[in-house]
Amino acid sequence: MTELPAPGDHPKAGHRRTPGARRARCVAVGTALPERRLTNADLAKLVDTSDEWIVTRTGIRERRMADPGTALSDLAVVAARECLDRAGIQADQLDGIICATITGDHVMPATANIIQHRIGARRAWGYDLLNACNGFLAALNTAAAFVEAGRAERILVVGGDLMSSLVDFRDRNTCVLFGDGCGAVLVEAGPGDGYGLIGFEMHSDGGSAADLIVPCSGSALPATADALARGEQFLKQNGKAVFQQAVRRMAEVSTSLLDGLGLTSADIDLLVPHQANLRIIQPTAERLGVPMEKVVVNIDRVANTTAGTIPLALADAEASGRLHQGTRVLLVAFGGGLTWGAAYLTWGR
Ligand code: COA
């Protein structure tokens, strides 16, 4: 495990208040979830587990599962259209689409291109961004950089995964944790002193890559018959190591970001953490000094949808009246890489 620099030496490269004339604002969110629910009781018919074990260890009660034949773009198109409707924007007003996912329709072409075509975003470029459970935040920060630099006016950031396509439903260590779902957020240029993305911080530790990995998913281990017979195409994890790192890093990066911006937990109206485990979310909030009333939790209903968790949680918060124009939001995520990050923003336009 690579150690981060001591707090005093921290480069703070990711912290910043947008200095220029433009700020990237998050103006609307749309989502798509498959209809089919897979409860803990359903899983207990597949593997040696129980509702009681899953609820007490993770907080998850059910997750959504796409029907066979569904691709990520099928959900993404629904989420994208809903997001654009809510923003009052036509698809041909988009300059770009960034799709964060580890379960795109194919390795090639990028799913963002398929979304671009299906929603009729004629002027938009598109590409995918792969950073596991931290993928949505990475894509958001990338989109914000384009917008702040004046290289785009509007970028649709899609985050979603069909984890049912990566999980071994014979492995109780992993199959209970994940679900399928997708969301999209419109990032749009606004005035530098208005609402929008105020700061971010990101980190990586590739030295711990093996702790959360899909071994047979690229050039390191091509899909030979032997590899597939060993089940190397499924997600593997060192659950305890991931758990410990997630608790530590999510609190650490949030505190570091707030410190760098000269803010405190009192400046957070809503904490939107990646939904991996309720037992990761609670100590993160506790270490930050944010009461659970300000924390968005939907893991009980949708489980861990990897790149989908943050937009799905934002949409939940909006639907329940907790996210509106001017809400000060801290987003924080952790995932395979290992990679973790946080972003602080005021919602809306
Ligand atoms: N049902 C019943 N028992 C299960 C089980 C399941 N679904 N999954 C694992 N177990 C068993 C283990 O085999 C172990 O049995 P053993 O002691 O006989 O070996 C026992 O439960 C305890 O496992 P342990 O690892 O101590 O549980 P835990 O409290 O650490 O919780 C996780 C396990 C996976 C829920 C937890 O480690 C976790 O959430 N890790 C992070 C995973 C994650 O979020 N990954 C994605 C990150 S983005």
Outline the structure in words:
This protein is α/β, with parallel strands linked by helices. It has one domain (11-349): Thiolase/Chalcone synthase (Peroxisomal Thiolase, Chain A, domain 1, 3-Layer(aba) Sandwich), CATH 3.40.47. Helices cover 31% and strands 23% of the residues. It has eleven helices and 13 strands. It has helices at 40-43, 51-58, 72-87, 111-119, 135-148, 172-175, 225-229, 239-261, 278-288, 299-302, 309-319, and strands at 22-32, 37-39, 62-64, 96-100, 125-129, 154-162, 180-191, 196-204, 212-213, 236-237, 270-273, 328-335, 339-346. The strands form four sheets. The protein has a five-stranded mixed beta sheet with strand order 1-7-6-4-5, with helices on both faces. A hairpin with a 3-residue loop joins strand 12 (328-335) and strand 13 (339-346). Helix 3 (72-87) crosses helix 4 (111-119) and helix 8 packs parallel to helix 9. It is globular, with a radius of gyration of 19 Å. It starts with 21 loop residues before the first strand and ends with a strand. The structure holds coenzyme A.
Ligand set:
coenzyme A
Helix/strand/pairing category: alpha/beta
Q: What is the helical fraction, as a range of percent? A: 25-40%
User: Any low-confidence stretches, pLDDT <50, length ≥5?
Assistant: 1-13
